[in-house]
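Researcher: We plan to redesign the surface later, but first we want a full-length starting point. Tokens attached.
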């Protein structure tokens, strides 16, 4: 936690991953992020993974450092309260539909400086999820070795869209500070996905070659990189990204002469050409399979580290959770009370600012925990009015 965005208040009306992660990143850097949900929790409130008591560890961690307001959004008065909170703070992150009571023009009525950052599935407003957008842009047909598509469990487009939404919010705030003008910024997962593929050259690649990229299993496209098995059964990924690493890798494994023989036979030089190492992997991989397969993982790791070669053994997330470098001694983690009651390392801001003190991660709220406080602070409602709203079931508390 840092205080880089202190003084900024943001309403978050959202669910699932992309929009909540945008609010989370803002909260981790000091913004007052007020998440507004349906009384009893939104559609992601019990999403897995969960504890034995059905407390969502997913929700608990995507909503750290936020405040929670619970409203009955099925009723007009509840919706009006959400609209009032948005107009009063001046900025909202949401994945609610672009039409309806959360339409930007409706929210901005009487508030021309309002900023709405809206995460969407598709740009035309049709629904889409990370896992369906991912297959639409073609990545599952590039992974694995075929013929079946291979999905992955990381919601990459959700997370990229969330980070982009946080960035877009700050960009819109900067524009407003210069012009006084608000705006709606729409961020469809589909555009983030296909735009990212284009940024990486993927669209140009298939159009240039007139065909799809071949499926390569665990080989890295365009580089020398693949998984190898050591003598003691440890599967390790090795990737060479510089010419110095290539030279050091050959020395570490004693493969200079064997690789030189391949170069002579094929009239090529691997010394300074990533593409050739990839193209001729059919000749290189067997050499490396034998050399690596004759060594223990400890011995291999020692010589690769000495040569500055990038490598990592395949591990489980349980292994990672107990790793001192990644978690137990990593300053981005700290202790925090959790609504679930389960004690585990809590993560704060990913960025490190050496000039500032890092504060401990903060807990996630309970549904409606800050309803009274926020309605009093932001909307200046009297305690009697707040009590009436609670009694009428318009406002929920924890």
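Model: Full-length starting sequence:
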């Amino acid at each position: 936690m840092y205080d880089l965005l202190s003084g900024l208040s943001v309403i978050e009306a959202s669910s699932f991953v992309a929009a909540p992660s945008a609010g989370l990143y803002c909260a981790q850097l000091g913004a007052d992020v007020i998440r507004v949900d349906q009384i009893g929790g939104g559609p992601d409130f019990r999403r897995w993974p969960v504890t034995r008591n059905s407390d969502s560890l997913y929700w608990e961690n995507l909503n750290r450092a936020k405040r929670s307001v619970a409203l009955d959004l099925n009723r007009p008065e509840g919706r009006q309260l959400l609209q009032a909170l948005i107009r009063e703070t001046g900025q909202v992150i949401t994945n609610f539909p672009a039409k309806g009571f959360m339409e930007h023009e409706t929210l901005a009525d009487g508030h021309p400086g309002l900023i709405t950052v809206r995460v969407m599935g598709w740009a035309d407003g049709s629904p889409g999820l990370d896992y369906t957008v991912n297959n639409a842009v073609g990545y599952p047909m590039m992974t694995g070795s075929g013929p079946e598509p291979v999905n992955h469990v990381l919601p990459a487009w959700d997370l990229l869209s969330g980070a982009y939404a946080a960035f877009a919010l700050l960009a819109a705030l900067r524009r407003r500070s210069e012009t006084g003008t608000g705006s709606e910024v729409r961020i469809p997962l589909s555009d983030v996905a296909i735009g990212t593929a284009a940024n990486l050259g993927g669209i140009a690649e298939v159009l240039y070659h007139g065909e799809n990229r071949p499926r390569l299993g665990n080989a890295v496209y365009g580089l020398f990189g693949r998984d190898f098995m050591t003598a003691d059964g440890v599967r390790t990924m090795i990737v060479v990204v510089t010419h110095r690493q290539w030279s050091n890798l050959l020395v570490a494994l004693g493969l200079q002469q064997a690789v030189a023989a391949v170069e002579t036979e094929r009239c090529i030089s691997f010394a300074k050409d990533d593409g050739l190492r990839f193209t001729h992997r059919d000749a290189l991989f067997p050499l490396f399979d034998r050399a690596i397969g004759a060594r223990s993982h400890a011995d291999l790791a020692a010589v690769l580290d000495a040569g500055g070669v990038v490598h990592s053994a395949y591990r489980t997330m349980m292994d990672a959770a107990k790793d001192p470098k990644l978690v137990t001694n990593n300053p981005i983690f700290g202790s925090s009370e959790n609504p679930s009651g389960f004690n585990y390392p809590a993560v704060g801001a990913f960025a490190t600012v050496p000039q500032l003190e890092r504060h401990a991660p903060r807990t996630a709220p309970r549904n409606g925990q800050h309803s009274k406080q926020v309605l009093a602070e932001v909307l200046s409602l009297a305690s009697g009015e707040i009590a009436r709203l609670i009694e009428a079931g318009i406002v929920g508390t924890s």
